[in-house]
Each structure stands twice: as structure tokens, then as C-alpha cells.
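Sample A.
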Amino acid sequence: MEQTLWFIYAALLGTTTIGFLIHSRHADFPIKFDLAVSIVTWIGLFGFVTNNQILDPLVWKIVFFGALLWDILFAFKLKNKFEAQEPEAATGVAGTLFMAISTIILLGPLYYGLFQYAF
């Protein structure tokens, strides 16, 4: 059952990544870089889910810490961008808390799997 849930999560994440890849032709650099980071982390998650060693574990350790740092910084960059566009929607502590909780819920399993794969 657990393996099935991992496959479903990896499929949803892969589908989302492909959707962003198709629609990000005219995006600015941070969004394209985030897409590249997402693709690499998805490959690591795929290796974890299928129990295949794709690259050396040292590579995945570096990817884990680098991608985690990037996603945290990028989430708050997006929050600041939304605050500039719609100040009443994402301001103050409530906006920060919402951004942190949604990031943990959506990306927590990814980083758990990537951590398990790397270590």
C-alpha cells in the first residue's frame, strides 16, 4: 500500500512538473531555475520509489540540501511577489504561515523520499 502511495505522489509531481515545463516558455529566470531543480529532485524521488540507484548517493545528498534551500528561498520569494500584487491576500504572519504550511504539505514527502534515497 505504501509503495502505491509513493507511485501516486511521484506521478502527480511528475505531471505537475511537465505541466509547468510546457507553460513556462516566457517565464523569468527564477521560475526556470525552479523548474530545473524540480526535475532533478523528481528524478531522485523516482529512483527512491522504484528502488533504483540512478546516481551516486553523494550527488543526491548535494541535491537534497541544495534543493531544500532553494525551495525555501523560492517559496518566500513567491510570497513577496504575491504581497506586491495583492497586499491583502498574503500579508504578515498569516501569509508567511500559510506559505510555510503549504510548502511542507506539498513538498514534505518529496524531501522525505529524497533524504531516504540519499542517506
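Sample B.
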Amino acid sequence: MTDATLLAPFDDTVVRGVAETNRVDEKQLRSALADHQRTMRENPGVEDLVYEWRKRFDDVVLHRTPETFFVAVRETVWEEYGTHLGLDDYLLAAVVAVHQEQVLRETAVESGAIGENAVALVVSRPSPQ
């Protein structure tokens, strides 16, 4: 699976804008975004992750398409990913900002749907083989 496939749910303008705003190297940000998507697919898998989050959190799925889940999770989920992927706080914040901005741009998601104690997360679903 290529980075382009993993980054498909993210608009280039979103990634570029977050990189510029946060003064993060765009290539490094794209790599971190791809690593995060790969990790969700491989361990334990997208459908299993979303199932677990639905059990743990209220109203986690904001919208879904055949290719993507748009979800709202607790900040601790992002902290765990940051640790697992070895991201420093600054790069992790930029990765989270890309996800947040992408969800806010999704017309099928009401901005108020993301709860006060939740953070957006975009999960790319693998295409059926």
C-alpha cells in the first residue's frame, strides 16, 4: 500500500496549509499521516478500531463513506498514537490539526457534532480486494 493510497482522505491544501501554519516540514507531516493510517489498518484493523471506539465513546462515528470513517475520539487516543509512532508533541499536534481540519471540511459532518471532550480523526478504509 502506497503513501498516496493512505493519504487519499486528506486534501493536499489541508496538509499544505497545516504544514505552513505550524512550520512543520510538509514531507515529514505527510509521512507521519501515512504512518498513522498504516498503523490503524494493520493493528488491529480499521473495522475493529472503530468497533472498539464505538464501545468506549458516545457518538464516535460522525460520518462514514465506503472509503472513510470520520470519527470523534478522546484526546488519549491521539496521545497513544503519538507515543506508538514516536512523534514529538509538535508533529503530533500538526497531524491532529490535519485530521481536525479535514473533518470540518466534510460537508456531511456538522461542526458541532464533535463533542467538547473529543478530537476528530479520519480513518481510511482499505478497499475490498
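B remarks: The chain has a mean pLDDT of 92. The longest strand covers residues 68-73.
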